[in-house]
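Narrative of accomplishments. A recurring question from our advisory board has been how the design workflow behaves on a single, concrete structure rather than in aggregate. To address it, we present the structure tokens for one chain from the evaluation set, followed by the sequence designed for it. No filtering or post-editing was applied between the two.
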């Protein structure tokens, strides 16, 4: 069953709880789990920690906070992480920047501000970054110049004004930028 789990992609959407994650914790070779809209407690983190091969994780709109997600053992090796709708995501983002293994990161509507951009600028392996619907302003955008590998950037629905233009012109191309 573990060999099957390596190739299997789980996508749950809806009103899920800790039992949902507990139901897959025995699939120890699972690499990708995406669960959207779950009502999780820290027990879900314990279950996810039983998946040592996890490199792609989506926890959008879950009840877990950024602080609770810090308990995930897979943070150091995650390549793709979606935390959209997560409350108090700042400590999580700081930790992810220290590990610097992410290639794809989405944190839509996480109440991120300019202070979070310094940590995001440390995620130098990123190819895609989606931080739409936050409170990012133009004054913190120079940190994006640290992301030399970035190919796709989504800043839609942030209060960014025309003062961002000089920085945006310095960003390496070709790249898709949504603002």
């Amino acid at each position: 069953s573990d060999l099957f789990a390596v190739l299997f992609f789980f996508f749950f959407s809806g009103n899920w709880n800790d039992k949902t994650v507990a139901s897959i914790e025995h699939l120890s070779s699972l690499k990708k789990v995406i669960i959207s809209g779950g009502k999780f407690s820290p027990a879900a983190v314990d279950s996810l920690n039983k998946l040592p091969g996890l490199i792609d994780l989506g926890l959008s709109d879950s009840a877990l906070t950024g602080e609770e997600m810090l308990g995930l053992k897979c943070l150091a090796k995650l390549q793709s992480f979606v935390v959209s709708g997560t409350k108090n995501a700042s400590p999580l983002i700081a930790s992810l920047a220290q590990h610097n293994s992410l290639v794809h990161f989405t944190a839509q509507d996480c109440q991120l501000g300019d202070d979070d951009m310094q940590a995001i600028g440390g995620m130098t392996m990123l190819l895609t970054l989606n931080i739409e619907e936050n409170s990012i302003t133009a004054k913190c955008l120079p940190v994006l110049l640290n992301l030399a590998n970035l190919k796709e950037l989504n800043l839609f629905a942030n209060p960014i004004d025309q003062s961002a233009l000089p920085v945006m012109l310095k960003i390496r191309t070709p790249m898709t930028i949504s603002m």
